[in-house]
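Quick one: structure for this chain?
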Amino acid sequence: MAERFRVLVIDDDPGIRDYLETLASRQGYDVTAVGDGEEALSTLDQSRPDIVTLDAVLPGMDGLEILRHLKQRMPEVPVVMLSGHGQARTIVEAMKLGASDFLRKPFEAEELELAFQKALENHALKEEVEHLRGRVRNERSILGLFGDNPKMLEIREIIEQVADTDITVLIRGESGTGKELVARGLYALSGRRDRPFVKVNCAALPSELLESELFGFEKGAFTGAQKRKLGKFEYANNGTIFLDEISEMHPGLQAKLLQVLQDGEFSRLGGESDVKVNTRIIAATNRHLEQAVREGSFREDLYYRLNVVTVNLPPLRDRIDAVPLLVDHFLQKYNEEYRKNLRGLTQSTMDVLTGYHWPGNVRELENMVKRMVVLGSEAAVLQEIAQREKPDEGGDGKGEFVDLDALGADFSSSGGLDLKAISKRAAQIAEKRVIERVLHQTRWNRKAAAERLQISYKALLYKMKENGLSEGR
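Got it. Here's what it folds into:
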């Protein structure tokens, strides 16, 4: 049942108050009636009116003064002024102060009803205009972050073309490149923008939990299932669901997702009937899905269902022109969130940020800007970047040397040197260094590192174990 509109009646005449209360109640409004302006102002937080009727002549503060206070505290709430005199000066002054209408006493019930309808319609229209302005600002701010890089302009064009359709979109790119930002851009420009946007990270949960998270379950479906639970797809009905890291979904779940894509139907865990949903699907991955299909870890039919429109998001190092835009965006975001006032970065800091190679992409930049805002200083971040760019600590490899002693090359002995053994040991050391560096660059995301090294995930785990590599080293 829809919530009823609330009316606040302010009139010092008990007979008029009762009459207005009766009329408004018959029209379906909830009514609060008070006898003077001071009482009305003191109870605004409790009455929370959607519309006010205000007598122009009151004891104490007069109606115009009360109107002035009402508009200061609740500028969006329409106020209908009532008066038995109807002096032109009073009417003009009331309209200047923001009254939505002015009725002379006595008035007919139809006049009051019409005044209420007109005031509420105008209020609704203003809200809709403001909503549309806010939406346009939001869309511009999201798409504006893409910058003028030709690759990003191409992506922006794709987003604008397909956003207002129900077509499935697959967003691809390295970890941290801003795939969720693209998904939200698609959502903001779509006809579903006023419906839910539901994000699910497919890598964050084991397959059993992910299934119940996505599709829900019935009471008694398993031990501990004491009542029905709706899944994310049901919460996203008529809206959009964003499936991040889709490549990590178990093949059994992939089949269920395929059914949703094909028929818009699925069954809850323990359920006997199908649930029908109308949900737009946007998926994202940082893996090479074609390789996953060849290896058998990703269904080919699901791949073709998802890969209708693909957005290939380049890493931040290939679109450095976006760094200043992103910095401004994250400064505003975290200044508001943490109530700070770091308004801009120095030019020298911006030069460092635009010259950095950003192995962690947009996510790394966001975290650095957040740290600057919280600490109120740029020094710690600049020091961190300088440390990371040292040649032997994840830089470009210049200045590295081969420790011949570590290779077992004993030049002090008059005996021979085992060149094959030395070459094998050198290869092992080089392999370890390359794997370690790629792991650092991918923030120890093993699947992304395996893809970059062009080896299988299992092979990477074996080589990490063989070389004694772990995240805590």
